[in-house]
């Protein structure tokens, strides 16, 4: 499966929720808190194909103001600092 990059640049303020993914928080194992991720495979595969950048897709697990746990696409990208090769020369 070939991954296709996002077609338009996203702003940091644009929230993209992970389709086909449900995040549940609870005490599932001996009362210890942890997260359980449930994937609706076809829907999540489409989301990955539409939003992956190269080989990676980063999601952030967050908690809403109402206390519900959800997954949001991490759209952060490092700033590209274009320097010429001569900028590092000592003379």
What does it look like?
With 91 residues, the chain is of the alpha+beta class. The protein has one domain (8-76). It is built from one helix and four strands. It has one helix at 41-51, and strands at 21-29, 32-39, 59-63, 69-73. The strands form two sheets. It has a two-stranded antiparallel sheet with strand order 1-2. A two-stranded antiparallel ribbon has the order 3-4. Strand 1 and strand 2 (32-39) form a beta hairpin. The longest helix is centred in the middle third of the chain and has 11 residues, at 41-51. Residues 1-9 have low confidence and may be disordered.
Integer count of domains: 1
- Helix-strand string: EEHEE
How many β-strand stretches? 4
Helical residue percent band: 10-25%
What structural class do you assign from the helix and strand content? alpha+beta
> How large is the radius of gyration?
18 Å
Strand content bin = 25-35%
Low-pLDDT segments, ≥5 res: 1-9
Terminal CA distance reads 50 Å
């Amino acid at each position: 499966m070939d991954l296709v990059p996002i077609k338009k640049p996203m702003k940091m303020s644009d929230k993209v929720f992970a389709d086909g993914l449900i995040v549940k928080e609870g005490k599932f194992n001996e009362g210890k808190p942890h997260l359980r991720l449930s994937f609706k495979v076809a829907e999540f595969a489409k989301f990955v194909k539409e939003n992956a950048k190269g080989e990676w897709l980063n999601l952030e697990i967050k908690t809403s103001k109402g206390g519900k746990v959800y997954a949001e696409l991490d759209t952060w990208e490092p700033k590209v600092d274009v320097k010429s090769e001569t900028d590092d020369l000592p003379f």
